[in-house]
Amino acid sequence: MDKNTNDKIKNELKQNEVCLFMKGSPEVPQCGFSLAISNMLKHLEVKFKGINVLENPELRQGIKEYSDWPTIPQLYLKGEFIGGCDIVKEMFEKGELQTKLEEKKIAYKK
Amino acid sequence: MSLKLEEIRDLIKTAIPDAQITIQDVAGDNNHYSATIKSKVFSGKSKIEQHKLVYKSLKGKMGNELHALALNTVEI
Is B52 within 8 Å of chain A by CB? Predict the structure, then answer.
């Protein structure tokens, strides 16, 4: 990964408590898995930044190297990689995502 | 951009010999699968680590030849 891409990822994670690297935008997701996480966050009324990797091939590849995770979407809470769609969905259903938000003092609808 | 169900099963089985694998081609296109994998190797590991083990068994195909594999990993 080049330095620019690495810096861009770090900046995004630093400036946004909740970051979703996704295909498409939160308004118009372009993949069912990105749509699913986006909808869970909207349901919980979590303020998040959606970063569309389809607009930036370096970022699309870079984020996979950053987390050593081969797929997108990827959810980050205060810089910590939480998981892809399957893990986030499971956590959401078990209430663990809500617990995690609580722990990290990120506002959401209870 | 596709991978046969048997190939996925074989790759996982090679890397995780005790894996009990249930896998479905959810869209019928050799590209969107859903799998439940049970193994002892998952015990004591976080979900992220468990899924990474499965992704590693697919030797870089995940996210490339293979677009989607919904995963449910279970410790036994």
Answer: yes
Q: Is B11 on the interface with A (CB under 8 A)?
A: no
Terminal-to-terminal C-alpha distance of chain A = 39
Residue A41 to residues A26, A107, B12: CA-CA distances in angstroms? 10, 11, 32
Return the domain boundaries, chain A.
Answer: 3-103
Q: Tens digit of pLDDT per residue, chain A (110 long)?
A: 999 999 999 999 999 999 999 999 999 999 999 999 999 999 999 999 999 999 999 999 999 999 999 999 999 999 999 999 999 999 999 999 999 999 999 999 98
Q: Is B55 on the interface with A (CB under 8 A)?
A: yes
B 30-49: CB under 8 A from A: 47-48
Give domain A3-103's CATH architecture. 3-Layer(aba) Sandwich (3.40)
Chain B partners of A84 at a C-beta cutoff of 8 Å?
51
Element (H, E) at B35: strand B32-39
ipTM more than 0.90?
A: no
